[in-house]
Each structure stands twice: as C-alpha cells, then as structure tokens.
Amino acid sequence: MPADSPDAADSPDAADSAVPADGAESVDSADSAERLRAIESLTDSTLSQLDEDELVTVLLDRVLEILSCDTAAVLLLDEATNQLVARAARGIEEEVRQGVRIPVGAGFAGRIAAEQRPVALDRVDPSTVTNPILWEKGIRAMLGVPLVVGRQVLGVLHVGSLTRRRFGPSDVHTLEMVGHRVAGAIQANQLRSERAAARVLQRSLLPPALPDSPRFRLASRYVPAERGGVGGDWYDAFWLPSGELWLTAGDVGGHGLRAAVVMGRLRSTIRSYALEGWAPDKVLALTDRKLQHFEEGATATVVSAVFPPSLDSFRLASAGHPPPVLATPGQPARLLSGTPAPLLGAVPGLQPDVHELDFPRFGVLVLYTDGLIERRGQDLTLGLERLRRAVRAEEPELVCRQVMARLVGAWAGEDDIALLAIQRQAP
Fold it and tell me: What distance in Å separates the CA atoms of residue 248 and residue 301, rounded to the nearest whole number?
C-alpha cells in the first residue's frame, strides 16, 4: 500500500486511533482543574484585539502549555480546492513557510477533517502521515481534532510530542475543548476581518467624485446595511471619450466579501466594455457571459443609462434591476417599467433590450438598488410607489435628501442602499 494513501492510516499497524472523550484514562483533579483554567483563559478579551494570524499564534502557544507538547499547528480548509492549508505552527514552522497543503481525506490531518473526529498516533512515519516534515522533525506521537462550528469544518488542530507518548482520552477531551474555543475565535475573527475588508473594498470602488458639467447635475447616496452583513451594491458614473455619459447601478446577490469582490469586478467589466464603444444592451450581455464563466453561481442585477453629449435622450438597458424613476417638470414621476432581461448569471445567452427615451430639460432620472424599496413582509409595489411619489424634478441633491428621508428615515436597513440622481440643465 502506498505510504501517502489515505487508506494507509486505516491498516492494522497504522498506530492511530479515534479516542473517545469519555474513556477510562483519567488525570488527577488538580491537573483537570489546571487544564480547565488554562482553557478558559483562551477567551481572554485581549484575544479579540488581535488579527487572525496573531490570534492563532497566541492560541497555539497556550495549547502547547496546556498539553505539554512540543509542536502544534492549525490547518484551515480552503473550500475552493478542498485542501487543508497550514496557517500557523509552533515547533514545525516549516509547514507554514513551505505552504503545506493536505487534501481532505488524505493522511493524518486530511482524515480528521473528512471524518470530523479526533485521531491519535503513537507512530509518525510515511505509513501514518502524508507530510514528511512531521516525521523528519522527529515527532513520535500526535493528536489532532477537527475545528468545527455548527456543521462547518474550518480546519484541523494538531499537537505533537518529540518523545514517546500515548495520548489518552483525557488529552483528547482537553484538545477538543481547546479546538472548540479555537474554532469559535477563528470564525469570529474571520467574520470581523471579512466585514472590514468588504467595507473598504466597497467604498474604494465608489466613484471618488461624480462627473461635473454645466449641462447636468448629479447627486448620490451610499448607505451600508446596519444588519445582515456587507452586500454588493454599487453605483457608477463616468465619461467616455465620445462624450457619452454612463450611469449604472447594480446589486450582486448575497453578502460578504465575495459579493463585494464580484461587485468590483462587474463594475470594472462594464467600464471596459463601455470604453470599447459597445451599446448598453451589448455591454450587459458581454458582462453576463464573463460573470457566468469566471464567477460560477454568482448573480447580479444591473441597470445602465447612457446619455449622448446633447443629453436630450438616454438609452436604458436593464438585467433584472428595479425600474428607474423619471420625473418631468410639472408632471408626476413615473416608473420606467419596461420588460427587463433576467438578472446576470441566471440564464445563458442573455439578450437585454435597450429603450431610448427623451430626457426633458430639468428632468430628473433616478437609479437605485433594491435595499431602498424592499422591506421584509411588505409588497414590493408599496416601496416602488413610495419612491415614485418622493421623486420630483428638482435639484438632484434635494431629490436624494427627500428620497432617503421618506423611504429610509430612522429605519435600520438590512441591505445596502445605492442611489444616483441626474438632472438635465438648460442648454
């Protein structure tokens, strides 16, 4: 049987075992109490101030003290490759420096992650582990547990001894308790880091300044969600060398860092295709093709309004996005509720329609994302009607102020809100 085979560890002489936490072996009460105090110290409030790398390193140092071991390592699951990646180590720092990766199901750590149970080894050699660093380091015995939160496997925590040792049930129980604390701390820290990174990414991708011209005025709002996590909402406004003005608004499905990353890629893609001179419907079709090829499973809604240099009209193309609002002086605002194409990423071969509409002098066009109009348990048409009534042919800054006051007020939103308004001025 090959030494690196995942099944090698299952052979009779593999010298590993899954040790139940309630086994017969015991430690004296003083040792148990001391271990419990050490484990409880893993929740020190000071740990919450550390970034993820510092946090894991500090936790490993404490694990070595608690179990009197010589080596410790945390490998985190990379879901894209289904491999465990060495993230932090003590005594075997080479694992991290060499970027060790272990397929889930292979060898010692891979088996722990696949079976989601602790495994103890009293022999460390090519027949029991796939990573040569471990036996070349002289490790004689190892114990590992899965890092699990709920049903989600985050990775594996393992410790090792350079002297002969048999890890017993009390050691397993202790390391499982430590693993539970480590997994919770890692997940909480990852969520904080992800939110912070997504917020920075979101704000960095908003236009630093809106285009300026005597022929029109622009105003915008962007408000991140207070609840529900970071989303993928955005707006954009840019000139082309042809003199055309492009306005876009979009919303990537889901929340978190991935939604923000996909949002940034979509924004850049739309700009690139627009710069090549494609019409708005073709830009959305090309963007959809790119999204489906490179961002499997991602979806997004997008609306684009393109104005010629005269600004007396605009072309409108939409992919699953809520209808823009157009206000004409002396008339009630109206929803431009044509038939939008399906959202990006939903169907192959997207073919959006493009509509050309007049843009009267002092008229106002409003683009937005659905966080502005959607409320849990309410019909969407109510939000659309409130928005329509709030939009008037006024200065865009006044329009944004009025819309946010009437539709948001003091409400703590569960989704991001992007809002963009343009008014055509006199020639």
Answer: 11
Rounded Cα–Cα distance for residues 349 and 285 (Å): 7
- Give me the residues paired with residue 355 across strands: 316
Three-state secondary-structure class, residue 404:
helix
Choice between 231 and 97, residue whose per-residue pLDDT is larger: 97
Largest CA distance in the chain: 89
* Residue 265 three-state SS: helix
**Residue 398: pLDDT band with limits 50, 70, 90:** very high
Give the number of other Cβ atoms within 10 Å of residue 159's Cβ: 27
Q: What does the alpha-carbon distance between residue 79 and residue 309 come to, in Å, rounded to a whole number?
A: 48
3-state secondary structure of 108: helix
- What pLDDT was estimated at residue 396? 97
DSSP category for residue 148: E
Q: Fill in the amino acid letter for 310.
A: S
- 294-310 residue pLDDT tens: 998 999 999 999 999 99
Residue 175's SS3 state is helix
The CA distance from 58 to 92, in Å, is 15
Q: What is the pLDDT of residue 426?
A: 73
Helices 169-205 and 52-67 cross at an angle (nearest 10°) of: 170
Label residue 2 by pLDDT band (50, 70, 90). Answer: very low
Rounded mean pLDDT, 45-72: 77
pLDDT of residue 358: 96
What is the Cβ-side half-sphere exposure of residue 276, based on CA atoms within 13 angstroms? 11
Cβ neighbourhood burial of 375 (10 Å; 0-12, 13-18, 19+): middle
Long-range CB pairs of 381-384, under 8 A, 24+ apart, other chains included: 383/407, 384/322, 384/323, 384/335
C-alpha angle with apex 127: 124 to 131, nearest 5 degrees? Answer: 65
Q: What 3-state class would DSSP assign to 356?
A: strand
pTM greater than 0.85: no
Burial call 129-138: b when 16+ CB within 10 Å, e when fewer: bbbebbbebe
> Could you count the other beta carbons within 10 Å of the beta carbon of residue 276?
11
- The span from the CA of 119 to the CA of 372, in Å, is 51
CB 234 within 8 A of CB 261: no
Q: Compute the distance between CA of residue 264 and CA of residue 114 in angstroms, rounded to an integer.
A: 34
- pLDDT band at 232, cuts 50/70/90? confident
pLDDT score for 223: 87
Q: Which residues pair with 304 in a beta bridge?
A: 248, 317
- The amino acid at residue 52 is E
Average pLDDT over residues 12-38: 49
Joined tokens for residue 274? 């627009």
